[in-house]
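User: I'll paste a sequence; please echo it back and then give the predicted structure.

Assistant: Echoing your sequence first, then the prediction.
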Amino acid sequence: MFVLHPNNRISSVQRKLMTTVEEKNVFNIAIDGNFDDCQNIVKQMFSDLEFSKSINMSGVNSINWARIIAQAVYYFYSYFKLGKENISFSVPTGNFGDVFAGYLAKKMGLPIDKLIVATNENDILHRAISKGDYVSKEVRETISPSMDIQLASNFERLIYYINNSDSEKTADIMKKIKQNTYQIDKQSLEIIQKDFLSESCNEEETLNIIKKNYEENNMILDPHTAVGVGAAKKLSFNDCVVLSTAHPCKFPDATNNAINKHEKLPQELRYVLDKDENFQVLKNNTEDVKNFVKSKV
């Protein structure tokens, strides 16, 4: 098993939860790049059929369809728990997987009203859904690092569905996306906006949401969940489920900045703070990663 993360672009607790694993068949790789770079490397390895077949390659993030299916359960659980029709969901979004699972749940008949795509300052999905602008910009490093993504893998799946499952048209659009020239046409945008709304929160807004929520509800939000709460409030959605996507203990710096306080790790995980880490730093280069993988298989 090979785990990739962007070097120095996640919190120390996030990193230690991955890099203190002692199993001999688990290898952690820190890529000198961002989340998009990590995903591009994995996609390129999948595309190299000779390589991917030689190691029987599979993925466990939302590149894998099975992950999307599993995430659809959140929406059904919320519906049965609340017993309400036409619930809206605000979903902190980077790779568009979790919120796309909600879209599938709605397609399966779950009475969802709107799916709010909540983004941080890396707001390409907000720009795309609100005005059709899917041109990527430089990735900004934020206090909600799991959302520091420009090109979301699962947005391609939405493009496929809104274009009547036309794989050739989808392939043409993906070429434009890779050339960084794609603008969503008016008809497609209207289709998307039937199900999706979007908003973004900057760093100051995110910290203020953590602070206000703690003062009002005595609950510490992680910065990703705070973005979800902020997006719902900006859109004036009061009757809305926010998917909380991380435990605040993983982001002590952010919560300390907001409220001078942080959540401790659950007792069963505190051991990672004192354990030695084991990971390999590699360049943002697919061939280097391939060679490392082959040397360990």
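The chain has a mean pLDDT of 94. The domain at 2-63+265-296 is CATH 3.40.50.1100 (Rossmann fold).
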